[in-house]
Amino acid sequence: MQARLRAVSDAQSTDELIARLPGALEPATRRWFERICERYPEIGIPAGAADAVVRMAAFSEFAASVLLRDWPWIADNLEAIGRPFDRAGIAAFADEIGASADDTELVMQRLRRRRNRELFAVLWRDLAGTTGVAESIEALSDIADAMLCAAGEYAAARFARRFGYVRDSEGEPVELLVIAMGKLGGRELNFSSDIDVIFAYATGGESDGPRSLDAQTYFNRLSRDVVALIDEVTEDGFVYRTDTRLRPFGESGPPVVSLAALESYLLKHGRDWERYAYVKARLIGPRPREAVRRALFDELILPFVYRRYLDFGVFESLREIHAKIAIEV
Q1: Are 71 and 116 contacting, i.e. CB atoms less than 8 angstroms apart?
Q2: CA–CA separation, 62 vs 143, rounded Å?
Q3: Per residue in 29-67, pLDDT tens?
């Protein structure tokens, strides 16, 4: 079957445009458009957009898969896709998911589809040359932040209905803290990046719901719910591959750590590479109370990263890490 998805009010069909592609790209691109035509035989490409749509399918397998899965929405929204990244829109989506009463499967579907549409739009603008590299990377990082916020708030609300809240000595709810590390922490994600996060909480105690849990168990289970919402593969794919191994003691340590335990670990076991990794640490989600922020950054992370005194071992450690990176490259 020939791909004949014709542009509305445009003399060129996708067939003609695909034929102009470099030989190595033409067969795979033609197969993608054959599948799109079979699935959506009545939906054409808006005038003037045929060349851009063909290039998206030719240059990115991810973009081609989104075209196949979501072509009706894309065809109706090509003008909006080309506009600058809408930070307010993605933040509003995160708030909507966080307050949603939808079941988990539907929320997972909405997160994945919105993420795919947002990444498709970033790629569209990048290939069109309407945004630069820095703007694209910033948008990709904002999208990841919003997806994590949405998943965290939704999971926390559902969890609280079953187990109540862990509360501090003043009776205030204790929140799950999501610490972004690596490329996410540095706001420098690319299209294929996974996300590195550390989950923490400020203080202990027990939850006050119908079924009470101690703080460690409560936040362990809550963090797993958040990761599942983001990381689990469904028919719509995944939102982000999520790596939590930068936490204290890595895979052998608990999924979530209290700030007291994190401080103890960094003082007794913190290694040089962790010192440098925490340079990029930042919190994702609603800003916690000032006392919690101070306890995490001013009293814990900053003193660990920026030591009062340096010795020559620091410079030797930097040389060793640099050498290992060079060998791997």
Answers
A1: no
A2: 17
A3: 999 999 998 999 888 887 788 899 999 999 999 999 999
Q: What percent helix, strand, coil does the chain show, rounded to 5?
A: 60, 10, 30
Q: Which of 225, 309, 307, 292 is nearest to 258 (CA)?
A: 292
Residue 309: CB atoms within 10 Å? 5
- For residues 181 and 281, is the Cβ–Cβ distance under 8 A? yes
Please give the C-alpha separations between residue 317 and each of 89, 273, 305, in angstroms, as whole numbers.
44, 8, 14
Task: Output DSSP code: residue 163.
Answer: H
How far apart, in whole angstroms, are the C-alpha atoms of residue 320 and residue 107? 45
Q: Which residues, listed in sequence order, are joined to residue 257 by a DSSP beta bridge?
A: 200
pLDDT in tens, 178-219: 999 999 999 999 998 999 999 999 998 899 988 999 999 999
Cβ(167)–Cβ(173) under 8 Å?
A: yes
Question: Measuring CA to CA, how many Å separate 131 from each of 79, 135, 136?
Answer: 15, 6, 7
Residue 246's contacts (CB-CB under 8 Å, 6 or more residues apart) are 181, 182, 196, 197, 198, 274, 277
pTM confidence score? 0.89
Tell me which amino acid residue 33 is.
Answer: F
Q: Which amino acid is residue 235, in one-letter code?
A: E
CA 232 to chain centre: 13
